[in-house]
């Protein structure tokens, strides 16, 4: 068993899916010889050929629109959008076509399309390269939205997403691509795709997070031990649908909840969790559900991003507020 | 010309064609025609119609039936039985000619106006009404007739067609002009301005995908005339993308058949995409919600009435093919029968139930949606027994 990075784990997951099912095709910009700008598809074109690992023209609507056609023909396209901020030319095809095809065909047409999007900030990038648009997809009926937070999940979740007969928007935490973990490919995944996991058991409050914030929240939870606080950390993994059963169970245990994400505050993932927890766990709560998130501004120039992004201190500040309420 | 019209386009846009403005608004630009508006067969150096008069009688019948279906649907809308209808009036030859050129493996990606192509593919006309009556959003299985669902977002289907054609390539379904497979994407002059259509041109070109892009240039995108979409004839755009383009008399069913057949063969044998601009005219409104009297001249309509796609075939059959009135009478009788069946079928379409449609959002339903479905069902049930 060897340590593997999150980026390499997705590569291995893609490879496994392609070996298992000849209908899986991977498509995107610069994903062939270059292996993608983050090298996530490195070596795939060499091994699976240009018909299955397709370097596309630079046209995101084209990537998704042709993926729809390939899916109608029986293929299972895995599309790479190069960066979060570049998905929007494809938004119409994703929202009006990919998401609705099963519905409008009354179940006759399936859209097993995976849309991989490296997302989030913290890498000192120029504008449009650090965004967290997950809610813009999670709000859309017909789409499923997930994000992996560690290499083992990355390996299995990408395969589960490809196996899904529903379209899945797969958000990859780009600043965690180089995080390492032990991966034993012979051990099957513990969770199905749309289930959250408790990554740290605790008793005093729950931190709900996903993607790049999982590591941040785990670090915050360790730091909080010094303050005598035993925090639970839940990696949501699935944003649409949310795994409400796991969320409710944790809140009923700890009675306090803090949602952490990089995306802006208003109408974000935290808003939905706060609403649902209020509906279901009202009498269990010792404090309102609080949120530590990016601000309602465009993603800032990178010299300011450390102030914009939730970090260990801001999470602990949120913990103080939810504990002292 | 008003001052808002830009000056002549720089020569660099079309070095092989000068002047470039404004031929697109005129029939002076050469197109492929094999049957004149007067019903006379004419020769063309590159295209010929290779079927017999029985086939032409079949095309005639198709066009009359489809026009009758279309007018019945318009009437149903006027009587409140449909929420909307998009008429194909005037475009029968473009649709029947191209539709009859398809083999039973070719795949069709329509807009929302391809009722004639649907007819050629064997889609029950009643199924077309569901979308417009509001009982469904596409009531047929695309696999049954190789006819994808109607696409309302302008131009989006051209990318689907291109992707599907890339699948045909990967399935090794091309390589034979007769028995191979091709994909045909329908769109209009307005859609030619869409990014998706231009992306589809690029993709099909660089991947050499077996797509026939069939543009019905009916001159109007709701209220916007063709010169708001283009400075050059649309078929000439193909050259810039690296594949052949041709303009055909869209009201000539023999020509649309011949031109489409050739483009399909080219795609099926693996020679790549092509663009057909069927030059026609939208004789009716954009949809039943539109009022063309606000933006176009009646004279234009009168001008195009003389080029009617059905009249010219009638003239040919009667004058040159010895077809007598029994045949024409029978076609009219068939049309009335189909229209009556369509009307009865429309009125009998069952109203859909919202709980059923919750089920179609996902293959694997989410717990949240199941909960909402149950809540709605309980809420709806709470009214049962009330007067």
From TrEMBL, chain A:
Coiled coil: none annotated. Its cofactor is thiamine diphosphate. The keyword Oxidoreductase applies. CDD domains: TPP_PYR_E1-PDHc-beta_like. Pfam families: Transket_pyr, Transketolase_C. One of its GO terms (molecular function) is magnesium ion binding. It comes from the Bacteria. InterPro entries: THDP-binding, Transketo_C/PFOR_II, Transketolase-like_Pyr-bd, Transketolase_C. Keywords: Oxidoreductase, Pyruvate, Thiamine pyrophosphate. Gene3D superfamilies: 3.40.50.920, 3.40.50.970. Residues 4-179 form the Transketolase-like pyrimidine-binding domain. This is Pyruvate dehydrogenase E1 component beta subunit. It comes from Kribbella pratensis.
UniProtKB/TrEMBL annotation, chain B:
Gene3D superfamilies: 3.40.50.970. It holds the Pfam family E1_dh. One of its GO terms (biological process) is branched-chain amino acid catabolic process. SUPFAM superfamilies: Thiamin diphosphate-binding fold (THDP-binding) (SSF52518). GO terms for molecular function: magnesium ion binding; oxidoreductase activity, acting on the aldehyde or oxo group of donors, disulfide as acceptor. InterPro entries: Alpha-ketoacid_DH_E1_comp, DH_E1, PdhA/BkdA, THDP-binding. NCBIfam families: PDH_E1_alph_x. Its cofactor is thiamine diphosphate. CDD domains: TPP_E1_PDC_ADC_BCADC. It comes from Kribbella pratensis. Residues 1-24 are annotated as: Disordered. It comes from the Bacteria. Residues 61-338 form the Dehydrogenase E1 component domain. This is Pyruvate dehydrogenase E1 component alpha subunit. Keywords: Oxidoreductase, Pyruvate, Thiamine pyrophosphate. PANTHER family: 2-OXOISOVALERATE DEHYDROGENASE SUBUNIT ALPHA, MITOCHONDRIAL. Coiled coil: none annotated.
């Amino acid at each position: 068993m060897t340590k593997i990075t999150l980026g390499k784990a997705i590569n291995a997951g893609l490879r496994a899916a392609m070996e298992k099912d000849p209908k899986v095709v991977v498509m995107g910009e610069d994903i062939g010889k270059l292996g993608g700008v983050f090298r996530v598809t490195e070596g795939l074109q060499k091994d699976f050929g240009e018909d299955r690992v397709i370097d596309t023209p630079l046209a995101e609507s084209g990537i998704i629109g042709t993926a729809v056609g390939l899916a109608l023909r029986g293929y299972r396209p895995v599309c790479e959008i190069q960066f979060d901020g570049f998905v929007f030319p494809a938004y119409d095809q994703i929202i009006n076509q990919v998401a609705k095809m099963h519905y409008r065909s009354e179940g006759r047409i399936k859209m097993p399309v995976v849309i991989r999007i490296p997302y989030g900030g913290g890498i000192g990038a120029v504008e449009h390269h650090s965004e967290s648009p997950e809610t813009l997809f999670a709000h859309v009926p017909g789409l499923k939205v997930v994000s992996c937070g560690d290499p083992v999940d990355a390996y299995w979740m990408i395969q589960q997403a490809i196996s899904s007969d529903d379209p899945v928007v797969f958000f990859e935490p780009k600043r965690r691509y180089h995080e390492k973990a032990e991966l034993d490919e012979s051990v099957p995944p513990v969770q199905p795709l749309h289930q959250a996991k408790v990554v740290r058991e605790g008793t005093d409050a729950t931190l709900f997070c996903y993607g790049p914030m999982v590591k941040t929240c785990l670090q915050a939870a360790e730091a909080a031990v010094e303050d005598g606080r035993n925090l639970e950390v839940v990696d949501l993994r699935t944003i649409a649908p949310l795994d409400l059963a796991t969320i409710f169970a944790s809140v009923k245990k700890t009675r306090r909840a803090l949602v952490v994400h990089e995306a802006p505050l208003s109408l974000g993932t935290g808003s939905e969790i706060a609403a649902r927890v209020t509906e279901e766990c009202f009498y269990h709560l010792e404090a309102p559900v609080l949120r530590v998130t990016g601000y309602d501004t465009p993603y800032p120039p990178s010299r300011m991003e450390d102030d914009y992004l939730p970090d260990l201190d801001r999470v602990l500040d949120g913990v103080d507020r939810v504990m002292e309420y | 010309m008003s001052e808002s019209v830009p000056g002549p386009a720089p020569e660099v846009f079309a070095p092989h064609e000068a002047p470039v403005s404004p031929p697109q608004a005129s029939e002076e630009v050469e197109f492929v025609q094999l049957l004149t508006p007067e019903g006379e067969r004419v020769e063309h150096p590159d295209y010929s119609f290779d079927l017999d008069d029985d086939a032409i009688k079949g095309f005639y019948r198709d066009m009359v039936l489809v026009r009758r279906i279309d007018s019945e649907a318009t009437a149903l809308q006027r009587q409140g039985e449909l929420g909307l209808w998009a008429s194909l009036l005037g475009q029968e030859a473009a649709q029947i000619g191209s539709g009859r050129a398809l083999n039973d493996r070719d795949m069709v990606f329509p807009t929302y106006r391809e009722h004639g192509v649907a007819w050629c593919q064997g889609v029950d006309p009643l199924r077309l009404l569901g979308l417009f009556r509001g009982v469904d959003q596409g009531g047929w299985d695309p696999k049954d007739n190789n006819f994808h669902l109607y696409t309302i977002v302008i131009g989006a289907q051209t990318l689907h067609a291109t992707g599907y054609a890339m699948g045909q390539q990967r399935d090794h379904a091309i390589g034979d002009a007769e028995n191979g497979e091709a994909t045909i994407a329908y769109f209009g002059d307005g859609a030619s301005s869409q990014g998706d259509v231009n992306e589809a041109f690029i993709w099909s070109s660089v991947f050499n995908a077996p797509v026939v892009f069939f543009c019905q240039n009916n001159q109007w995108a709701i209220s916007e005339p063709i010169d708001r979409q283009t400075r050059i004839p649309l078929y000439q755009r193909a050259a810039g993308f690296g594949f052949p383009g041709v303009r055909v008399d869209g009201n000539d069913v023999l020509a649309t058949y011949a031109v489409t057949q050739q483009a399909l063969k080219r795609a099926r044998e693996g020679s790549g995409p092509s663009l057909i601009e069927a030059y026609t005219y939208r004789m009716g409104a954009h949809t039943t919600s539109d009022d063309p009297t606000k933006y176009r001249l009646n004279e234009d309509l009168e001008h195009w009435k003389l080029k009617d796609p059905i009249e010219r075939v009638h003239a040919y059959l009667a004058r040159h093919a010895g077809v007598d009135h029994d045949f024409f009478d029978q076609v009219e009788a068939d049309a009335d029968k189909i229209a009556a069946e369509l009307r009865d079928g429309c009125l009998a379409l069952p109203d859909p139930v919202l709980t059923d449609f919750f089920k179609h959002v996902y293959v694997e339903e989410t717990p949240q949606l199941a909960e909402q479905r149950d809540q709605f069902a309980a809420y709806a049930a709470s009214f049962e027994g009330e007067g």
